[in-house]
Amino acid sequence: MRTALVIGTGLIGTSAALALASRGITVHLADHDPAQARTAAALGAGTDEAPGGRVDLAVVAVPPAHVAATLAGAIRGDVARAYIDVASVKGGPRRELLSLGCDLGSYIGTHPMAGKERSGPLAATADLFEGRPWVLTPTRDTDTEVLNLALELVALCRAVPVVMDADAHDRAVALVSHTPQLVSSMVAARLEAADETAVRLCGQGIRDVTRIAASDPRMWVEILSANPGPVADVLSGIAADLDETVRALRSLESADEDKRAGGAAGIEDVLRRGNAGRVRVPGKHGAAPATYEIVAVLISDEPGGLARLFADAGRAGVNIEDVRIEHATGRQAGLVQLMVEPAAAPGLSAALRERGWSLRQ
């Protein structure tokens, strides 16, 4: 690949363009809003000038509802040797292209599993896809050259290629991406009219659950409109669990001992099934989830504090596997939870205490 055309300069399109441009690819940028393409060009993602001829790869990075029409226009204009899209749904756009009479030999649907709560070119980074899965959905009609160019794009963005059937992909993202967005938003919506004293009690748990509720509603309406059936199927299962859980909680209010026992068993069942599902979420580098020991350190909110803590952990010869920060309400301090291998925890705790850090259970 030497040249590329990125159509749509939002977060994903601009991030892909930045990655390609940083590796020597000549990238042309196009957007229905010329100002957005100029912004992406100013960030170093390429040029907003039209290509002088046919490019090697066209990357369509527009909202799902506009993917098929944009791809059809590009294919009919013969702007590239190969065409991909990066929409978060795959079955619908492919069927729309077929209905429009497009030859699908030069096209492959893809979906990089990466993103942010923020959108637009100013949120883009060249390393957005690094180490992240990038789904490819080739069919029997896909030309080998097209697949190879798509794989080259994934490699240049330092992502990890995953080959899937388009409809299987849509069912998968309904479960692991689209439904969590809705559930997060539903939980966060309970806070809108909550009493201020209740909101002030928010801790790390509610922050974890509601983090993605900050996402752009307009973007998510477009995504969910393109994949409504699979998302509704997952939500139906959750709704059944919710009904059972509500009944179990009501039973716990009963004066009848047998009902209370049944209610407790129902709550324990959903919690244990949650444990079993959580264990299946891939851990570090995509490996099986590991069980880490937590070393909790009280840290003041001041410049250089985290850097000093990480440096002291490094001097102790301990690799930090993961980290979380829980901020203290009303105090200029927080609790940093360092996740480390269980065997390393005692040594790290001792080393940090020697260096003056205050540890918590």
Automatic annotation (TrEMBL):
Residues 2-289 form the Prephenate/arogenate dehydrogenase domain. One of its GO terms (molecular function) is NAD+ binding. The keyword Metal-binding does not apply. Residues 1-19 form the signal peptide. PROSITE patterns: ACT, PDH_ADH. Residues 294-361 form the ACT domain. Its EC number is 1.3.1.12. InterPro entries: 6-PGluconate_DH-like_C_sf, ACT_dom, NAD(P)-bd_dom_sf, PDH_C, PDH_N, Preph/Arog_dehydrog, Prephen_DH. GO terms for biological process: tyrosine biosynthetic process. It holds the Pfam family PDH_C. Keywords: Amino-acid biosynthesis, Aromatic amino acid biosynthesis, NAD, Oxidoreductase, Signal, Tyrosine biosynthesis. Belongs to the prephenate/arogenate dehydrogenase family. This is Prephenate dehydrogenase.
